[in-house]
Amino acid sequence: MTPRGDAHGPWGSAPPDESDRRSYAEAEPRPFWLDSPLRPEAAAPLAGEAECDLAIVGGGLSGLWAALLAQERDPGRDIVVLEGDRIAAAASGRNGGFILSSLTHGVANGLNRFADEMPALERLGRASFDAAVAAIERHAIDCDLELNGGLDVAVEPHELDWLAEGVEPLRGLGHEVELLDREAVRAEVDSPIYEGGIWQRSGAGLVDAARLCWGLARAAGELGTRLYERTPVRRVRESGAGVELETDGGRLRARRVLLATSAFRGLVGAIRRRIVPVYDYVLVTEPLSAEQRRAIGWRNRQGLGDLANQFHYYRLTPDDRILWGGYDAVYHYGGAVERAHDQRDASFALLAKHFFITFPQLEGVRFSHRWGGAIDTCTRFFAFYGTAMEGRVSYAVGHTGLGVGASRFGAEVALDLLAGRETEATRLRAVRSQPLPFPPEPLRWAAIELTRNRLAAADRRGGRRGLWLRALDRAGLGFDS
Prior knowledge:
Blueprint: H1 18-24, E1 48-57, H2 61-73, E2 79-82, H3 91-94, E3 98-100, H4 107-114, H5 118-138, E4 150-154, H6 159-172, E5 177-180, H7 182-188, E6 196-200, E7 204-206, H8 209-222, E8 226-228, E9 233-239, E10 242-247, E11 250-259, H9 269-272, E12 276-285, H10 290-296, E13 303-306, E14 312-316, E15 322-326, E16 330-331, H11 345-358, E17 367-377, E18 384-388, E19 393-397, H12 403-419, H13 429-432, H14 443-460, H15 467-474
Parallel strand pairs: 1-2, 1-11, 2-8, 4-13, 11-19
Antiparallel strand pairs: 3-7, 4-6, 5-6, 9-10, 10-11, 12-15, 12-16, 12-17, 13-14, 14-15, 18-19
Helix pairs in contact: 1-11, 2-8, 2-12, 5-12
């Protein structure tokens, strides 16, 4: 059996062993959500010359929400979505499927940066979350939506203080939360490493994000949106009173453009300077037997995450598999987004080891799928918005892994910016301001690697942050979500 924790915390200091590696050796090297007979046939790529009123670059959640919202606002508008690969092939189809109302990657992160605006940000986030749920129902999108809340668990004694400190801010911002002691949290999900937890019952749920994308694409298409897949946009430039987009197969002239490019190289400088792609890795088990399900409990099917700087996130799928991801966050020098980075044995082995430490009663379970993918990270750890080319281009990027819920809000903001429409959201500093840019290479790689190293050290030292992390905190760059 995989060794339990030691003086280095619950994960221990021993490296993964061969039993950990055997557990995923035969796993499919592709995202579980995309390995589905429900995946639609690919749309044709753009070929030749075309024109439209609004071009949206990116066929993930941000881009598809933008298409649907724009089409609903103006049914006669000619809208085109250009996707470089397939709908949901990138971050929107590779994530854990946690749909949350938070716009700031958690309340603590938001309070540290925009404390005075948090009541408005939380209210707007909840309204957008509710509108997303309503749209899923209105358009009959079958995406396995479960509104069971989220459970944050402490796996070390020092994290209990963080739990206690987190309850009142959540309640003060209108959330329904319950603080759980060791006995209560293990009654929800049975793991020997749990010390306590917070169950946030409001503004949190689970979804099959790939099927959500496919449903949004269908709904937007029924309203008139044209979709082109396998159409990467290579360049965006001003052209007369509009914008011209160059693709591998042709050109598209648009009056306005909305960029929803996630971790891929930004088409305008404001994105390129502020986004880095960080790779995250995921395992999914084979379906659990009835006996295995009873062994772990989890009757209320919440999405779970632990509280460390290097944290895990995990959930049950509709067919009772466990999706288990996180912990490693890998940046590759130069920031290239490449398929070669999607598989990383060192990360899978570490995930498998930690899985069996968390659930020793599931020893012997095998993993059916393994994958990785790039997350669009910025220095404030939640999305930022803006315009370029004299307001003809807008963007919403930088969700840092929590875009399943926040993407609808970002799409709405980007549309409002493009239209020059002033709203409560666009007046907020959190929307008007932008995160500090990353330094150029090689300083970028060195700073990211040093920060990862110091975050891991803080986890080993009872959460105590050293000089480097404290300096980042003072500069407004500290990770706190």
